[in-house]
Amino acid sequence: MAGDAPIFDEMNLADGAVRPAYETLARWLKTIPTDLLATRSREAEALFRRIGITFAVYGDAASTERLIPFDVIPRVLTNDEWVRLSKGLTQRVRAINAFLGDVYTKREILRAGIVPEDLVYQNPAFRPEMNQQPVPHGIYVMIAGIDIVRVDADTFYVLEDNARTPSGVSYMLENREVMIRLFPELFSQHRVAPVENYTDDLLATMKSVAPRSASSDPTCVLLTPGLFNSAYYEHTFLADKLGVELVEGRDLFVKADVVYMRTTEGPKRVDVIYRRLDDDFLDPLVFRPDSALGVPGLMSAYHAGNVTLANAVGTGVADDKAVYSYMPEIVKFYLGEEPILKNVPTWRCRAPDELKYVLDHLPELVVKEVHGSGGYGMLIGPKAAAAEIELFRHKLVKDPSNFIAQPTLALSTCPTLVEEGVAPRHVDLRPFVLTGRDKVRIVPGGLTRVALKEGSLVVNSSQGGGTKDTWVLDS
Amino acid sequence: MRIRIAHETIYSYAVPAHAVIQTLRLTPRNYEGQHVATWRIDVDQDCRLDAHEDAFGNITHTFSCTGPVQTLTVRVDGLVETSDTAGVVRGAIERFPPGLYLRGTDLTTADGEIRAYAEARERPGDRLSTLHALLDDLARDITFDKDPTHSATTAAEAFALKRGVCQDFAHIFIAAARHLNIPARYVGGYFLHADGTVDQEAGHAWAEAHVEGLGWVGFDAANGQCPTEQHIRIACGLDYLNAAPIRGSRHGGEGEFLTVKVVVDQASRQVQVQ
Fold first, then answer.
1. What is the DSSP letter of B148?
2. What is the C-alpha to C-alpha distance for residues B210 and B90, in angstroms, rounded to an integer?
3. Which is it for strands A156-162 and A342-343: parallel, antiparallel or unpaired?
4. Measured between alpha carbons, how far is A51 from A73 in angstroms, rounded to an integer?
5. pTM of the predicted model, to two decimals?
6. pLDDT tens for residues A168-186?
7. What does residue B26 show for φ and ψ, rounded to 5 degrees?
8. Are A313 and A295 a contacting pair, CB within 8 Å?
9. In degrees rounded to 5, what are phi and psi of residue A255?
10. Which of A121, A256, A297 is nearest residue B103 as measured by Cβ atoms?
């Protein structure tokens, strides 16, 4: 667990042997010249550029849009590993949905004293406006992105739950497409589980959660904040693949508690909105009155049960990092099961004894802001300069409940093409879990993010991370 | 006391609006000390009022109309019977435990000045005295003035000016109470002036704070008193935005001009209710 623990490489064991999942790939890597890999890598970049897949980095004025680096060496998981992961993911998302349904209605988990009341009520992501309001079919999180890290052959941890508007799935799909074009020979040597049915699964999920009043063929749309959002490319990509309209707030309106889309043939009723717009901006009559991105009256239609929002409003209270630390208890409370996927051990700095431990061990720990995301506002003790540690010490003392701390995990590594050749780099995994009225759907794999800098543990694309294609091998 | 309320909100547009949608929180509920005898809302447009109960237990009506809308009038007429409960609110609809009302909002964030002001008035172990000290001192230290503030003015901004309207008094009181870990909330309603003034330019607003043993207690800092039988309670929430009488949006309709007429009068016993 500490910084000096051996690092688990997913291809090469410590004794030099190759793990079975990577046997074919390792042989291929030995035969293919590095300069050919580099050529393929440049071809991949050209393809991504042509597709137009870009990502905006906040606070980077020089290049508002740029490519996320793509690594051409795939990451490989066995079917057995995937079966276990997907069971754990399904369980976790079921528990998240049960938790949200409870905190917005009966509040049994608060009454039982398992999660502290103030952690929910004082949480910026909790939406009092959702209190006692039913949501269609009782499902809050239809689309979840659960960040998983691996530390050895058997241990996967959930690093973070993303229950608001998780992004990145377009990279999962594009990465596969590009890999098939560049390395058809590799796909003929492996039985790789397909991922391209993700958008069919997403559409089926959306239709399954349409309000009961909707027609048998519900109308779904994707609501985007617009061109200036960092994930706008993904919004256009998904709407196109789903075959649904990409709309902005001004394209929708509400009349008599029903949502309509303006079309050239006149108003068309909308049943399901896959919204990639944050809660705060959804409806100026309920949330920020200055929001021009939302749809006035949307919440009234939503509360009347005439439209489904995917995800529901107020889901962020379940993916907050302080609530995260209670996930094992949350799983047990609602499902009566032991969690299949472990949490990273987490110190809650709001508790004085845990704060003391954290302050005494700052150089070994990772400290995160409870409401932060994207790798911002984070201290990685072992990599931090003394001044940075002191800055965090000050922040922690001033506002302890705003932070959690975790041990510095020795994230697993995968072979990655870097300037010096093929070398191990740390990775994580974001599988996308779709929850419909009928069932849970997870395409095998997800988005693997890789920290391209040697020794770096930060995989976030906003911090210079790249991505890889993720293979689950059919057994 | 029987109080008659007539509240008219008139929007007129230099350029007619294409579409207007509004959510109204203009309907009182019954609780101890307040019985709604009659109540009626009219909107002078071709529209349907869709009633809901919001997350705080307030009754809302949402309507939308398509233009051209030159003028739009929302009219409320009602008769409410009230009795004095020394400011204690019993039998009201409660949808949250008191702890929710410790939650901060943008409009009710206590800055350093408000925090210091609150701390100077804290009577440890005596929440009620603390709240009364805040009530008395805010009524003395803040001047009622409708010019310098507006509906988006924060507690901190109004406190810096030491001026504001009832909304600002309520926000400052709430910010100070929450800083002292006392659950507090915003209440919108009407107020019958004791001096016989009947015509008013706006509704009224005050705060409620939670006191163990008593429950929710009203504090009307603008008037330096706890609510009496002269107060009609309409809606509550974390701040003005949760309890605002009207929140609306429109397409087109540039050059909006707003007229508000509020008449709060004691109903003579002879008047028959229709």
1. S
2. 12
3. parallel
4. 20
5. 0.94
6. 999 999 999 999 999 999 9
7. -135, 20
8. no
9. -135, 130
10. A121
